[in-house]
C-alpha cells in the first residue's frame, strides 16, 4: 500500500520528528523572561474532542494566558511529535506511547502530568463476523500511526499470542478509517471516540477497550507536554496553561452533559458518542497526579506508578522495534518537569 503524506508509517513519523530536531533543540534567546509573555502560544489537541478543549469555546485560555492563542488539531500523537519537532507547537496533550517514542528519538520535550487516563475511550471495533481476538489473523486492521491505539493493538497481539505477520495493519488516520470502513476496505480498527460511534452504528462489533489491557500491565494515558525551550523561556505561561487545563476539567466534572453538548456543536460531532468518549477517560486532579498513585512530587520517586509505567512503555516500544534500546535512559523522571508542576500546584 502506498502511504500518502497524510498517513505516514509509525516509524516514518518518528523519523521525521527526529530529523527536525536541530531547529528545535536551541533554547529560546535570553532564558526565562520574568513577568514577560510570549506574543503567541500554539496549543495542540487531538481532533477527537477532549474535555479540556472546552476552554477554546469561550476564550478561557486567552484570558488566562494574557496573550494570543492559536489551536492546532492533530489526528494522533505521531503528527504531534512531528509538529513539536518542527517548532510548530508549544504545548499539547496526547498519548503516553508516542510521547515515550519521541523521548526515545531525542525530541526535547518535557512531560507535565497526566490529565487524562484512558479506559473506554479507545476501542477495538471489527466486522460483526469477527467474534473473537484470534480471528484478527488474516484481517485488515486500521490504526492511527504512532498512537496509544497502535501500542494497544501491539499489546493485544502479544497478550493473545497472535502472529503479527498475519495481521495486515493499515496506518490510517481516524477520519480516513471511517471512509475505509464504509468502502469495505478494512475488517476492523483500533480507534478513538467519538469515531467508533460511526462504526458501532453501522453494525460493527466491539471486541475490547483499552481499559481491558490494564490487568495485563498495559496502561495508557494522555500527558501534557511542553517544548523544552518554551518551558525555559516562558515558565509562568506554562504554569498558567497547566492551571487553565485543570480549570476546564473542573468545568467538565461539574457539568459533563453540558460540556459534551458544547463540544459536539463546536466540532460537528454526534453528541452521544462524544459524551461517552469523554466519560471513557478518567481525570485525576492535579493534586492526585502529584500524589503517590500517579507521579509523586519529585523525580527521585522512581517507584511512582506512572514513572514505572513510562519505563514499561519504553521497554515495550523497544521490543516492538519502535525505538532503539540505547535511546532511553534508565531513569525517566528527569523528563518530567516537576519544578513547573509543583509551582503550578503546590502541596
Automatic annotation (TrEMBL):
Record's keyword annotation contains Secreted: no
Lineage top rank: taxon: Bacteria
Listed name of the protein: ABC transporter substrate-binding protein
Taxonomic lineage of the native organism: Bacteria, Pseudomonadati, Pseudomonadota, Alphaproteobacteria, Hyphomicrobiales
UniProt family annotation: Belongs to the bacterial solute-binding protein SsuA/TauA family.
Pfam families xref list: NMT1_2
Domain spans labelled Solute-binding protein family 3/N-terminal: 40-266
Compartment annotation: Periplasm
